[in-house]
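Researcher: Batch entry, complex prediction.
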Amino acid sequence: MAEVEETLKRIQCQKGVQGIIIANAEGIPIKTTLDNASTVQYAGLIHQLLMKARSTVRDIDPQNDLTFLRIRSKKNEIMIAPDKDYFLIVIQNPSE
Amino acid sequence: MGYHCIMFTDETLDSVGTESSWRRSLQSVQESRSCQTLPLHTAEAEVQALHVTNNGTQTDAQDCFAEYHETSGDHPGLKEFLDGIEEMVIKELIKNSRSHAFDGFEVNWVDHKETVACIHRLQHPDAQSRGLQVTSLSWSCTGSVIACAFGRVDDGDWNTERCFVCTWNLDRRGLNPKRPDLTIDVASAVMCLSFHPQRPSLIAGGLYSGEVVVWDTSRTQDPILAQTGMSADTHREPVYQVHWVPGSRRGELDVMSAGSGGRVLQWRVEGVEGRLVLASGYALVRQQVPMINTLSKARGGSSIGVTALALSPWDLDSFLVGSEGGLVLKCAFSSQTVSAALPDGESVTLRAPAQFCFSPSSGPVHSLHCSPFHRNLFVSGGTDGLAHLHSLLQAEPLLALRVCDSSYVFAVRWSPTRPLVFAAATGQGLVQIFDLGRRSLRAATTIDQETGGKPVYCLEFNPRQTHLLAAGNGDGTINIWQLSGNLTEQGPRETAQLEQLANEVAD
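Model: Structure tokens for the complex:
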């Protein structure tokens, strides 16, 4: 368990990282560095977007699959790394 | 012929003395006294412990490991998942922080308005013919309805004429700027208004007579939901500020009123009985204000008349008070010190809330507003024609901006969307909008209300439709302005710039 915490700490220490959330395949957050309200909001909304993005990629080419999703906004960038059982959300403000 | 030599010789004369007729030697009235304490009694005693015991404690280290095993069991495969993606994610994060790919890249989702335009000019013909002024404005929580209070501020005399509160619904198609949707007759001049932050039909108002009233605009018969009436608890002086605060009962809001009598009172709304019941109260007196240096220049009445009040959206316990004498005080709801003001038959004990005194200005403070983007910043405006940017952490202001020459600042409000922007209303009929991100300290935009030189008394941004700004004038008209995109669209680094400004607190 300590290794999981250490991995998260290494990611958190990167420049401009504002928060990290790990959620399971159903979109329920299991680890987070943000407050409860924001975590629930991010996990729920991003899970829906992740499903839509994945189905878009597979519809265009059934042999293809989603490996990484990035959303760039005026204030920050959200990076999502998906997997079979979990997905990782990292929020970074690159100009900080 | 012979010469007579006159020989000069030295001569000494006796000294002459005169005795004083009024001064006597003080020697004659000398007395001597002495005193000595009674002899002290001392005694010695010794003590020694007969029984001695040693004891020690230590935690068990084993429990920690047991816990770790449990939680890792809940998430099988989590460690493998993270191991697999960690490297890739960190590589992307580093690349992103160094990338210049998006520098200067901006997207236009909405057509930005380039200019500021006046979209409505509201007036009430009856109020105009009587020469009443707009004393206060409030937007409803939905952002569609604006309520305006008409009263008189230029009259030095005690005012007893009937005045109104009018509401207009700006989203209604049949909007007639000359005819309000609802007009409420009030027995005396209304000095301040505030819409309930959650229930769109309730308005609280403070009157010149010292009463506080809550109106319910959804009622057809009698709009008055609750009022203080004239009791021992009521203000004796005009009420200048009225706000809704978290109340004594859970989930409900109370009305907080402050007036020139130095009282800040919190009222519970008893809708069934139609009364506002005093829940708690504070009285401000000069002796209980923590002054940095003695400001004993002003004498007369020890109570501090309140002309401005601001609640902090960050710290629910503190509020700011601006006084007629130019003081700006930080107060706390939870203060337990009993006020030194003489009790006058009130039903609750009044407390002294002042905790900190900021550097005073030379005239009454008309308006205070806490920044919605930074917990330590607030802006104040008063009769010296300057708008001061203060930090809660120090007494001296961070910045003083000249709003107008030889005129008063009647209202200051932060923009709800741009952290660095605030608007100020002047006595010359202009609304000056300042952008702290610009190099120059002059106003970014000046809006002329076209009132023929009459002052602008109140200013409010629409909480929902954030590009709208309402300003109420001394000639009885209200202008609704639609602001341009550069005044309402938040830039990417604004919060960081505001943080930098706030950190310029002197050590």
